[in-house]
Amino acid sequence: MPKVPASNSARLKIYVSENEGVFSTDNQILFCKLCDIRVNSLKRFTVNQHLKTAKHLHAVNRLKTNAIKTKENLVSNGICGNHSVFNEDLCKMMLSANILLSKLNNKFLTEFLIKYTNKDIPNESTLRKNYVTDIYKKKIESIKRYVNNKNIWICIDETTDVEGRYVANVIIGTLEIDAPVKTFLFNSEVLDQTNHKTICKLFDETLFLLWPEEIKRDNVLLFVSDAAPYMVKAGKALSALYTKIIHITSLAHAVYRVCEEIRKNFPKIDSLISNGKKIFLKAPSRVLIFKNNAPGIPLPPQPIITRWGTWLEAATYYCDNYKAFCEVINMLNEEDAVSIEQVKKLIQEPILEGNLIFIKTHFSFIPNKIMFLEKHEVLLADSISSFDEIVKKISETPGSIGKLMNNKLNTILKKNTAYGLLKNIKDIISGTRESIPNMDQNITVTDIPYFKYAPVSSVDVERSFSAYKTVLADNRRRFTFENLKKTLIVQCNSHFNENE
């Protein structure tokens, strides 16, 4: 007798029984529970083909990994009593992603988490009272274990927050020969006032937190800060206690100061940039006129004064699109806004185009150089070489403006005495200098190789302040500073794996 083919439902049940826990069926279709998709089941080879796909294999590995973690969590929970690993991981995730713990009070979020994790979701007060501090302490301990006996650099800066507090953040980083520096936000404190004494005190307190048994003063090789007078004074005071320390003021800040001088010497361009962006801000009808009459040209940029490269980029924009911009402005009614009236007067100035051309010709290279100086994982040799290019090009700028910029930069560098020392170290590491110059610091032959990836800007601490402002949003003003500090440190160090 001829072989009777199995019915569709019977065939599907065979696939399900052969791959227990993988497939499910409603007697009509075959569904892969791991991949969450329907599988073509007309022929066996298509089913086998699905089982070999990268997506399915990844899902299988994920299932195995989760099973192992579940067992580990059960053991951990047994040891830790009521301290739930799931709750800790949930809290850590929310702190790292800057998600308010109070979001757990949202019914839809908790229902979603319960549905897909099969876990009881804790109240936000439970996490805040029982887990935030532990997660913070674990993060600090993991950083201490990693840094341990390594040579380090340290960076401190201060800002005034929306509550009027003087907040100082401390970045520490390792100096290693065979790997780029690893940086950590290690401390954040409120200062009574900002002067060299409070900075020195914070410096010492931070290193005592890092090395509670005994501060390893000879392991602190570099201090990076801005060029504020109290920071310079603090650097001199600290050199008496930390005899190997080199204090350099941020080279990126030196470039910012030059950019500030450029802006100061081109007031009409500054007015054009300031008013040009206002014209099209929250003005959809004017934006439409611009797009219709200047197709393919972006709207005027909105530079941020504290990011000096953006001002120069805006000046370059107006130089490149001056004619099209003027045509659009002349179509607008000057009675609609003061900014339109001012820009219409400015574009009548005969010197405006000349100023834009001069800025683009001699200073348009600066934004890219600033971005390079702000990069992570850059060799000291590359950072110094990039800054030297800035110095060289500014020294070649002609005219009275060029002389002013050159004098400004030379004045800044004269105050940054450690710059010459780092240049010598760079030359030794690069092989362009063979003899070791006399140094005031007690830097030894053993120490010099650790400057291979030494940073020359304080951009990391600036980024931590950006994170601080995000955490201290308008709807989070009830944050106590202690909890704010813990949240910030966990969030800013979320890139660091505690198992390293």
UniProtKB/TrEMBL annotation:
DUF659 domain boundaries:
136-279
**What single Pfam family name could you report for this chain, choosing any that match?**
DUF659
Q: Which domain of life does this protein belong to?
A: Eukaryota
Cross-referenced InterPro entries: Cggbp1 (IPR033375), DUF659 (IPR007021), RNaseH-like_sf (IPR012337)
Question: What's an example Gene Ontology biological process for this entry?
Answer: regulation of transcription by RNA polymerase II
The cellular component terms of Gene Ontology attached to this UniProt record, alphabetical and capped at eight, are: nucleus
Gene Ontology terms, MF aspect: double-stranded DNA binding
Question: Which PANTHER family is this protein grouped with?
Answer: U1-TYPE DOMAIN-CONTAINING PROTEIN (PTHR32344:SF1)
Q: State the protein's name.
A: DUF659 domain-containing protein
Per the UniProt record, the source organism is Aphis glycines (Soybean aphid)
